[in-house]
Amino acid sequence: MSEGIRDKVAIIGMGCTRFGERWEAGGEDLMVEAFQEAIEDAGIEKKDIDAAWFSTCMDSNNVGKTGMPLSMTLKLPFKPVTRVENFCAGGTEALRNAVYAVASGAYDICLALGVEKLKDTGYGGLPDLFTQMGNKNRMIMPNVTAPGAFAMMANAYFAKYGIDPKEGKKLLAMISAKSHKNGAKNPKAHLRREATVEQIMNAPMIAYPLGLFDCCGVSDGSAAAIVCRADMAKNFRSDPVLVKAMQVAISSGEELMYTDWDGTYVKTTNKCVDMAYNEAGITNPREEVGMMEVHDCFSITELVTYEDLHISPRGKAGDDIKDGFYELDGKIPCQPDGGLKCFGHPIGASGLRMMYEMYKQLQGKAGDRQIENPKYGLTHNLGGFPINNIISIGIVGR
Amino acid sequence: MAGIVSYGAYIPKFRIDRKIIYKSIGWVNPATYLKGEKAVANYDEDAVTMAVAAGMDCLSDIDPDIIDTSYFASTSAIYKERQTAEIISTAFDLRSDIRTADFTDTVKSGTTATLSALDSVQAGTSRNVIVCASDCRVGRPGSAQEELFGDGAASLILGNDNVVADFIGSFSVSYDFVDHWKAEDDKYDRQWEDRFIRDAGYSVFIPEAISGVLKKYNVDPKDLAKVGYPCLYAGDHKKIGKKLGLESSQVQDPLLANVGYTGSSNPLMLLVAALEDAKPGDKIVIASFGTGSDALLFEVTDKINDIKGNRRGIKKHLEAKTELTSYEKMLSFRNILPIEKGIRGEIMPFTPLSELWRLRDQILGLCGTKCKVCGTPQYPSQIICVKPDCGAVGEMEKYRFSQKKGTLRSFTVDHLAFTPSPPGMYGMVDFDGGGRYWFDISDIDPESLSVNMPIEMSFRKKYVDETFAIHAYFWKAVPVMD
After folding, report:
1. At B399, is the pLDDT very low, low, confident or very high (cuts 50, 70, 90)?
2. Which residues of chain A have a pLDDT value below 50?
3. So what's the pLDDT on residue A319?
């Protein structure tokens, strides 16, 4: 029987760049910025790092494939560096690999770093998905964009629960308004302006029913974490953050090709979070999870994730939204740093950025956004589309 | 006896009132005005896709495995070299041990392909031949052709068994009559003077061919139920009928006022329209006009009653129409007015033709697999069954989705995606009988989309890679035609 990863590994240092349209910075600049903050935070030197896991996604307009962009930029001398890529779940995937590496005893100290330079395409939105999905998919997949693929879930959700599209759009707008409020408080966030529900609802349509403000920022950025075995952590700092669970679940084609999924939720999140709660020893998530950063690439994703994480009852996320349950001063603050929505979404870095906020919150260093005495912090990434995806979930605590 | 086993047709959904064209560009040549409307192929349609649509109508309840020869006729094929008959035969999921040919270079090619098919059937070389004639011809902005030409397709299966109309015989005349022509790189027809075409060709060749076939088979014009021939000049179309001794009720409406002149497919579309109204014993003559004329004489059999009403043919397609109110949109559909694509639209990933070859059944034919163990249909083809509690390995058989109807489980209207006709539309489709995939959606107004609406599949152009001159085809979801 496997034991899981709970309490075996600690995060002893983290770094995160300011996210945004970093016209002045390339991928290399961003990597150095996140890395230097992380090693200074951990109080270690570069030579102390035994191995690294490196996450990037869009190699067509980023730093390139392999582990070399990391080792060459950071001048990591002849160290093992592995590039990992799992779409938007890549950042958490890098951390998961680094965590397993130290837990195995193979290494003492490992680095996980994610970076994405998205704003070199010349157009808005993500780079073309068709180069990312393989030849066959390109010839048969519909002409999908990310907002469109998630908008389908919103239409299906509204239809299933009999929610009038206008009422549904309002619920989604409340989610985005909450994240704008949090993002405005965060100096490292991409979008730092509050937005009213009315403004959000009236924004230009991107993919029906999702408007501009239902979509997250397309951003440049990098984030990094330094991990070691839990028994070593106090040698580096008094307030390390312990890894409670790291889980990944990936679609095997059921949602896309078999007809029992109705398109109103994300199946993989349900599977992944069951494993994560079990690993972390959480039995009543609504009471035990203290805060979370979920993959709000689009407002509807955040809404169904509330339910998929077994926190809001199925079909009832709207009640919790209206009750302010997920606001910064609510029962389970969600997206305290602004989320993908306002902190931004440099794909390969996002999972580590979420963890950065959980780490700072657990250490009581989140400034204006500080949540009172959280026990567990949960991060959730969704790579791909509702119809076929990768979910990664991390749970950390003290 | 050899004859017509099945028929089908296709008229694109969009119709433009010619007044809209004239209002926009009639200033170029005020004499171009024509009454009525014309059919306009959607941005993702062309002669190839319309041929498939007509062929699917023709094949509707017919096992594609009985087809052993496949002919395509058009003057607006997409490729100079890459046979369209083979593209569309793959879309129909026909057998590979068949004979195929394209008939091109003259608007007479539709009837010529039909005659060749009948020859082959009569000779016993072929048992069942499918002929698809399709044209999507473009007229230069401001030209008379722009008003005259319409888009459409027709399809026939010719064979010896279950014949709905016996083929009595034919009479052809062939001349190097250069009324219009196109050289290697011409997008538009070049044309000689109308008076010459009308008086030396149109009014001469059609009567010559029709009288020829009547005389050859000793048929009195009075005994004909319907005679169909193209209409290039409305007044002279009537005169030809009179010259042949026909009552106006015997002359098949040439579809000028509601479809337009559809080139190589026009005579076959008129034949389909005539068969839709025919009763056993009716004699029908169809003639083409091009570089000469072919006239074909048929006699309708009892079997016509088995097929009548089971095809969309001309009538149902005429009814299912959407007004196209923008002349500029019509031009952009044919890339006569190229629109701003943005960088997202300019970037075009490479098309691997060797992979297209391996996946031809799946991509052009919309064939997936069905698990022999649990019976679950799945698209695209799988090796290991996708049904969670099955998972059988290597137990798949081919399963064709192209004729399945389905339900749109979810959808979106996407303003970010590049498409030549924004906004993009796509959704998740559950097929009747099982199987699911997501598809682009076409031929519908975005406001009319709804969760759980019924859809069917239509063969469409997916993208055009101008750098490599690749026209990529696939299937899209479209609303079900009643």
Report:
1. very high
2. none
3. 98
Residues of A with Cβ-Cβ distance to B380 under 8 angstroms: 136, 140
Residue B360: what are its φ and ψ, rounded to 5°? -55, -40
Every domain of chain B and the residues it spans: 3-333, 342-366+401-479
User: Is some CB atom of chain A closer than 8 A to the CB atom of B413?
Assistant: yes
Convert the pLDDT of each residue in A263-308 to its tens digit: 999 999 999 999 999 999 999 999 999 999 999 999 999 999 999 9
Contact between A310 and A273 (Cβ < 8 Å):
yes
**Residue B348: what pLDDT?**
80
- Average per-residue pLDDT for chain B: 97
Tell me the fold of B3-333: Peroxisomal Thiolase; Chain A, domain 1 (3.40.47)
A263 contacts in chain B (CB < 8 Å): 409-410, 428
Tell me what the mean pLDDT of segment B204-220 comes to: 98
B156-167: average pLDDT: 98
**Is the distance from CB of A192 to CB of A323 less than 8 angstroms?**
no
Distance spanning both ends of chain B, measured CA to CA: 34
Q: Is A310 a catalytic residue?
A: no
Report how far residue A380's alpha carbon sits from residue A366's, in angstroms, rounded to the nearest whole number.
19
Identify the CA nearest to B407 among candidates A140, A166, A301, A156: A156
Task: Output the CATH code of domain A144-214+241-397.
Answer: 3.40.47.10
The reply to whether A295 belongs to the active site is no
Task: Please state, in angstroms and rounded to a whole number, the distance separating the CA atoms of residues A371 and A328.
Answer: 7
pTM above 0.95, yes or no: yes
What values do phi and psi take at A198, rounded to 5?
-65, -45
Give the pLDDT score at A322: 98
Q: Which of residues 307-326 of B touch A (CB under 8 A)?
A: none
Partner-chain residue, chosen from A142, A156, A204, that has the shortest CB–CB distance to B409: A156
In chain A, what are the domain boundaries?
9-120+221-235, 144-214+241-397
B33 or A198: which leads in pLDDT:
A198
Write the CATH number of the domain with boundaries B342-366+401-479.
2.40.50
Mean pLDDT of the B249-264 span: 98
Common-topology check for domains B3-333 and B342-366+401-479: no
Radius of gyration of chain A (CA): 19
Give the CATH fold of the A9-120+221-235 domain.
Peroxisomal Thiolase; Chain A, domain 1 (3.40.47)
Q: Tell me if domain A9-120+221-235 and domain A144-214+241-397 are identical in fold.
A: yes
Given the residues A57, A88, A215, A297, select the one marked as catalytic.
Answer: A88
Distant-in-sequence, close-in-space partners of B95: CB < 8 Å, separation ≥ 6: B64, B65, B67, B68
Contact assignment for B412 to A148 by CB distance below 8 Å: yes
ipTM greater than 0.90, yes or no?
Answer: yes
Asked if A141's CB is within 8 angstroms of B438's CB, the reply is yes
Subunit contact A131:B410, Cβ cutoff 8 A:
no
Tokens of residue A322, six digits: 């209206």
B358 CB contacts (<8 Å, ≥6 apart)?
none
Partner-chain residue, chosen from B359, B409, B435, that has the shortest CB–CB distance to A263: B409
Number of H helices, E strands in chain A: 14, 11
Residue type, A13: G
Within an 8 Å CB–CB cutoff, is residue A205 touching chain B? yes
Determine, for residues A139 and B462 on separate chains, whether the beta-carbon distance falls below 8 Å.
yes
Which 3 state secondary structure label does DSSP give A317? helix
